[in-house]
Design brief:
alpha/beta; UDP-X_N; NUDIX hydrolase; hydrolase; NUDIX_hydrolase_dom; hydrolase activity
Length: 197
């Protein structure tokens, strides 16, 4: 277990204790464990003001939904983050009450201006294993192969640029969101099997 997984587990255990302990003294101790863990993380990172959220209910991994969309020349559609100026496949965290397919369609139209149909699930990644720059939040990444139906490429408050790239000439990627290895795996397997990591 690496240090990130250690802290993820410690935070999850303390969250569970806060939510499910019946003894008020235990709840107080679990709150202390959570606060001490946050204080230690802040002392070990460049971000000295990191505020971790206490979750209501049992802590589980979050779900990140991404779309692989190609143009007629098999170039990959990427979106640029306005803050970091790094690129990723369109997508984001899934919303509660919406299916994964509905989420990916919604994210694509919000970030790119395109309406898409979803062909198939290409890959499922565990970000603890596949995205080393990921935050302390543990999440699963689902990548769907989507085909353009209509619309024109447009930016949004979430994207400063939307553009197609040759698979061999990808720009600087936001590796906490998507890696070159993941894009290549999805590109090569878009019509076939689901990659599970």
């Amino acid at each position: 277990m690496d240090s990130k997984q250690f802290f993820q587990k410690l935070l999850a255990i303390s969250n569970s204790g806060i939510n499910y302990s019946k003894d008020p003294y235990d709840v107080e101790r679990f709150n202390e464990i959570f606060d001490i863990t946050q204080e230690f993380i802040n002392s070990q990172t460049n971000n000295k003001n990191l505020t971790l959220e206490k979750e209501a209910g049992y802590p589980t991994p979050k779900i990140d939904i991404r779309a692989l969309i190609l143009d007629k020349d098999n170039k990959v559609l990427l979106v640029e983050d306005p803050k970091t100026k790094s690129w990723s496949l369109p997508g984001g965290f899934a919303d509660v009450g919406t299916s994964p397919v509905e989420n990916v369609v919604k994210e694509v139209i919000e970030e790119t201006g395109l309406s898409v149909s979803v062909s198939n699930l290409i890959a499922v990644y565990d970000t603890n294993k596949s995205n080393p720059e990921n935050s302390l939040a543990h999440y699963y990444k689902l990548v769907y192969y989507c085909k353009r139906l209509s619309g024109n490429l447009t930016t949004s408050i979430e994207t400063s640029s939307v553009q197609y790239f040759n698979i061999d000439q990808l720009p600087k990627l936001s590796t906490k969101r998507i890696t070159e290895k993941q894009i290549r795996e999805c590109f090569n397997n878009r019509e076939s099997k689901t990659i599970i990591e």
